[in-house]
Fold each of these.
Amino acid sequence: MLIIPAIDILGGECVRLQQGDYDEVTFYDRDPVAVAREFEKAGIKRIHIVDLDAARNDSRRNRKVIRKIRKAVNSTLELGGGIRDEDDVEELLDIGIDRLVVGSMLAKHPRKVEGWTRHFGEMFIAGIDALDGRVKIHGWEDDSGTGDMELAKEAGAIGMCSIIYTNIARDGMMEGPDIRRTKEIAQASGLPVILSGGVSSLADVEQAAKEGDGKIVGIIIGKAVYEGKINLNDAVAKFQTLPEAEMAW
C-alpha cells in the first residue's frame, strides 16, 4: 500500500482543517517546499497536495508555491482544489502535476470531466468527500445533491484512474479511518481507491493494509505526520510495497 502524505496549502502555508471547516484551521510553521523535500527524503513516492484557496475560488494564490514544490521533488504529485475548466487542467499539467483530483466538477458536471479524460488521458482522480453518505463540494461547504456510492459508480464509468475517498466526519479528527466505507466505494466503482481521513497511528495504517483486501491501494496521512504521531520512515519501511509499475492510478 502506498503511503501518501498530504500538504494542504492556505495562503501559501501548510495547514490542516478539522472536518473541512475553514474556521477550524491549524497553521504549521513549515514551508510547503521544505516539507515536500522531507517527505521525499523519507522514501515517499507520491505527495497529495490540496489547494484550499483554489477550492474557494482563489485559484491564483498558491500556484507559485505549487510550482516550487514541483521543481523541488521527483515524487509523483497529485493535486486537488479548484480545478474547474480546461485552462486549470492545462496550467497544472504544464507545471508538471502528475494527477489531478477532481471533486466538485465531477459531482456537478460529470460529462465535462468525461471529456477531459478523453482529451488528456487517464490522469484524473475522483475526489469523493462525503458526510453521512452525501457528497460535499466547494471546499466541503455545499451539498452536491448526490450520494457517494452513486458518484463512485459514475467515476468508474467515465474513465477516472482512481478514487480518493474521504469520510469528512473522520478528517482531521485522528479517530481512525473509515475502512469499511472505503472498501464499499471500491466495490461500487471497480477502481483502485485511496483512503483519506482520520489516520492517527501506524496501527490505523496496518488495519487498512490488512482489511483493505487489495482494494485500498494507498492511504493519505496528514495531521498525524505534522503532529509527530506517525513517522514516515517507519510507515514506508513497513507498508509501502507497491512497485512503480502498479502506480498507474
Amino acid sequence: MQAVKSMLLGLAGALVLAGAAPAATPAPYDGPRKTVAVDTVQAAESVGGTVTADGMTALLIDALGRDPHFVVVERPGLGSIQAEQQLGGVQAGTGAAAGSLIGASVIVRATVTKFEPAASGGGISIGGPMSSLIAGRAGAKTQRSLMEITLRLVDTTTGQVISTYRAQGFASASSADAGVVNTFTGATAGGGMFRATPIGQAGQDAIDKAVAMIATEMRAVPWSAQVVQVTGDRIYVNAGADRNMRAGTVLYVYRRGEVLTDPSTGVVLDVEMARVGVVRVEGVRERLSTAVLVSGEPPLRGDLLKLD
C-alpha cells in the first residue's frame, strides 16, 4: 500500500513539474517584410487638430516601424513617389501605373474620431489664469482619457479599401509628466511632448491595438515588389535586406493589363494582371536586389514581382 502511495505521489509531482514548465517562446518573425505607406492621420479641431494629427502620425509610423512584418514608407516620401509614377506613365509599359505606390502593398489611413479627456474617474485639479482650458498635469488624479481611431487599409494598385476597423485606447491622466496640458486639444504649454500627454498616451494604446489588427489583416495581402530597372541580363528589384530578401528567392513577374473602372463613378474596380515570367534573386543589397531571368519574357520597369 505504501509503495502505491509513493508511486502516486511521484506521478503527481511529475505532473506538477510538467505543468509548471514554461511554454515555448515563438520564434521571431524572419520572413519577407511587406511595405506599408502611412498617410497623415486626420484629426478635426474638436479632437486636437494639427497637434493631434502630427503626434498620432509619428506614433503610428514608429509602431509599424518596430513591427518585424513591415517596412514603412512615410508620408513625406509619397509625393515624390507619386510624381515619379506620373512621369513613368508617360511612356506606356515603362512605368508604374499612376495611383499605385512603388513597393508598397497598402496605404494605412487613420482618422481620430473621438477623444474624451475625462471618460471616467476623478477630475483634474485646475489653477492659473487659463483654468477654463488648462489643467495642471502635476496635480492630475485618476482621470481616464479615451481615444478612438478609425483605420483603413487601401490597396495601392486599385485604390480600393481592403478593410476598415476601429481601435480604442485609454490612459490615466495622472501618468502624464509634470507640466501643463490643454485637456481639450492635447496641445502642451511649456514644450511637453505629445507622447507624454493624456491624449498621446491614449493614442499610443489605440495604435498598439491597431497595429496588431493591421498585422492580422496583412496576412491576406500578397507580398510584392517591383522591377526598378533592367540592364542587359541584370534585373534590379526594389526589395533588399531591408525587406529580408534572400539570394536564391524565386519571384514571379506580373504585368498590369486593363484597368477595370466603374462606368458610372470612374472608381477603379480591379486591374488585370498577367504572369509574364520568372526571375531568381542573385545579389542582395541594403535596399535593392539583383536578379536574373529564369523563364518567360524579360521584365519591364514597373512590373510587379510576387512570391507565388
Amino acid sequence: MLLNADRKVWVGRRIDRTDEAWQMPQGGIDEGEEPWATARRELQEETGIPPHLIERLADHPERLRYDLPEELQGKLWGGRWQGQEQDWFLCRFLGHDSDVDIATEHPEFDAWKWVEPSELPDLIVPFKRDLYRRLIEQFREQLARS
C-alpha cells in the first residue's frame, strides 16, 4: 500500500480486464526471496517506482488470503492456484508523480491514480474486497497520520 504526501493510496487499472478493476501493486515471491524484497521488486516492475523512492512505514502482522470465486478457479493462472496468500506493507512514496511509469516491460496497468483509502474496497474486484478492508483497518492509525 503506497501513500503519497496527501495520504492517498496508489492504484492501477488492470490492463487485462474489461471492467473498471483497480488494485494496488502485488505479485508473487520468487524462490528464496523475502517478502519485503518482493514488494520493492514488484512495485518497480509494475509502476516504474525505484525502491529508493519508498519508505516502509508498517507491516501487516499476518499473511492475508483471498480465494477466487468458483467460476474463475481453473481459468486464471493456468488453473494452478485457487487464490493467494499475501504479505502487505504500508509505504510512503518519496518521489513525484513523474516518477511513476506504468509503461513497463510487462505492463499490468493502463491507468493509475491516487485515491482515498476508504475508496479501495469499491475499486477492487469483489473477491478481494474483504482483504482490502482488513488492510485499511490494520493500517488505520498510520493512514491517519502518515
